[in-house]
Design goal:
Layout: H1 3-15, H2 18-31, H3 35-43, H4 45-54, H5 60-73, H6 75-83, E1 92-96, H7 102-114, E2 119-120, H8 122-125, H9 130-139, E3 141-148, H10 150-154, H11 156-167, E4 172-176, H12 185-191, E5 197-198, H13 205-216, H14 226-235, H15 242-245, H16 249-261, H17 263-272, H18 279-291
Parallel strand pairs: 1-2, 1-3, 3-4, 4-5
Helix pairs in contact: 1-2, 2-5, 4-5, 16-17
Length: 293
């Protein structure tokens, strides 16, 4: 990017109509991913001041785009702070997606939670600063599901999430959301030749979900909180059993091993120690254990 490009954008940001400012800021946000362009923008003090003013604009799109550009421009500082935090061992599975695919991703979220994965998706967790919530989610992730489509690739917001996850060396698992789509440009470079899971509708949903669960392995399981266990019990029709609510994620994983290695003792323990007397309770718990990765 040449300095002349900034000169063309600045007058629009200063005096343009709101719609023009929105587009100019989106261009600036996209340019901020390029290292050479980034330095030129950062060296222009008046432009940086303008961005800091526009991030508080009453127009939400203007404010969002200005915040997005600033966040990318300051990403290296954020990475420095993230590097000082403890390494995440038992984090969540983060879903990074474009809103056009939300319905499908909510189904995937629910199925993963039924398998006792801790899942982060924006609709459940966003409050206050969207970019701050996104950054915290990436930093706390043990794996990131990157839901690729043309709209994902064209979204500077999605690119911000993806680039930050890549910069922090987070394990990335691509999900194909658009039939026959092949990532190119920045997304193609970032994903390289990674194995992807096709949720475009070409294959049965349950088949691909089983493959995804196997790929994720134990991610997000041993770090299951009391709330996660309660949610797992609820999803598997086991809510209300006080003895089950005291179980930890590791307890549940041990019971899974027990069910495979010593099934007779497993069922005796369920009945005598955990108080599961009815056939339905025994069936629900056994089925829930079998579904775990």
């Amino acid at each position: 990017m040449k300095k002349g490009a900034v000169k063309h954008l600045k007058p629009i940001l200063e005096d343009g109509h709101d719609a023009e400012k929105q587009e100019a800021l989106k261009v600036l946000w996209e340019l901020s991913f390029n290292k050479d362009s980034q330095h030129l923008i950062q060296e222009d003090a008046s432009l940086m001041d303008l961005l800091n003013t526009l991030k508080k604009h009453q127009n939400k799109i203007i404010a969002r785009n200005a915040n997005g550009a600033l966040w990318v421009l300051n990403m290296s500082q954020r990475m420095g702070k993230a590097a000082q935090k403890p390494v995440v061992k038992d984090g969540h599975v983060m879903i990074s997606y474009q809103w056009g695919n939300q319905k499908m991703l909510l189904q995937i979220r629910d199925k993963l939670r039924e398998n006792n994965f801790r899942v982060w998706i924006d609709v459940d967790n966003i409050s206050g600063s969207t970019l701050q919530a996104m950054a915290d989610a990436v930093e706390g992730a043990s794996a990131v599901l990157m839901c690729m489509s043309q709209r994902y690739k064209d979204s500077p917001n999605c690119r911000t999430e993806a680039e930050y996850a890549f910069a922090l060396n987070k394990p990335i698992i691509p999900l194909l959301m658009e039939r026959s789509y092949r990532p190119n440009g920045w997304l193609g470079i970032l994903l390289g030749s990674k194995l992807f899971f096709d949720f475009s509708g070409k294959y049965p949903f349950e088949k691909k979900l089983d493959e995804l669960v196997r790929e994720l392995g134990h991610t997000g399981l041993h770090g299951a909180s009391e709330k996660d266990v309660t949610e797992w019990l609820k999803n598997n029709k086991l809510a209300g059993h006080k003895s089950l609510e005291s179980l930890s994620g590791e307890n549940i994983k041990f019971l899974q091993k027990l069910s495979q290695r010593a099934p007779e003792f497993f069922f005796t323990y369920l009945k005598q120690d955990l108080g599961l007397r009815s056939l339905n309770d025994l069936m629900n718990f056994s089925n829930a254990i079998d579904k775990l990765p």
